[in-house]
Specification:
2 domains; rod-shaped; about 220 residues; 5 strands
Length: about 220
């Protein structure tokens, strides 16, 4: 038989083993919880393969969205071939979404402070006659001045001067056979400058007559 001291020693070892086993069990439980948490996090995090199709779909959808100012067919598209060979000194051509603008220096058309077409001015408009006659859209003749005031009996301000110059060009176009229903005259005075009126060159650029050609919308 075992003596009392031996039994006591065995009981102490058994208690120590149970304590060690309890600590090991708690540690394994913590590891299991952490592993479960990582698995959940990985499941919730999007992978690279899932991002790629979504991104591709987004890019593809954006490519098909029309952006402002893009993908619109200009109304003046049919005028381009007719103005490519246009080469008249003092006359410039610009194209925009609203139409083609023929910009003419006022010194080619009028004497200073006057609204009657000079012989030279009539020649310039006459050179444009073939283009304007064949064109079947609307023609807006727009007069522009610099900001230097004018105050005469006939032209109390630049409003009257710019309007009278636009009307003079319209009347000449009528005599060339253009239908009045396709013409209009507009005077802008100095409200739409192209350059600063603080310089001579700027004021010269601002004194102009513009013919805006708008193609008829079907």
């Amino acid at each position: 038989m075992l003596d009392r001291d031996t039994l006591h020693l065995l009981e102490q070892n058994a208690g120590s083993t149970e304590a060690d086993d309890g600590w090991t069990t708690s540690y394994l439980d913590v590891l299991t919880l952490l592993l479960t948490l990582f698995v959940l996090l990985l499941a919730l995090t999007p992978t690279g393969s899932s991002d790629a199709p979504a991104e591709s779909a987004s890019v593809a959808s954006l490519e098909n969205v029309p952006l402002p100012g893009h993908g619109l067919k200009p109304l003046n598209a049919g005028l381009a071939p007719r103005i490519e060979q246009l080469d008249i000194p003092g006359v410039s051509v610009t194209q925009g979404q609203s139409g083609v603008t023929l910009r003419i220096d006022d010194s080619l058309l009028f004497d200073s402070g006057q609204a009657a077409l000079t012989a030279q001015g009539q020649g310039v408009i006459d050179h444009l006659g073939a283009l304007l006659t064949d064109f079947d859209g609307e023609i807006s003749v727009e007069g522009h001045t610099d900001d230097v005031p004018i105050a005469t009996a006939r032209f109390p301000s630049n409003w009257e001067l710019s309007s009278a110059r636009a009307i003079a060009v319209v009347r000449f176009l009528e005599r060339q056979g253009l239908e009045a229903s396709r013409l209009r005259a507009v005077g802008y005075a100095d409200t739409r400058p192209m350059a600063s009126n603080a310089t001579i060159d700027g004021r010269r650029a601002n004194r102009r007559v513009e013919l805006l050609l708008r193609q008829a919308v079907p």
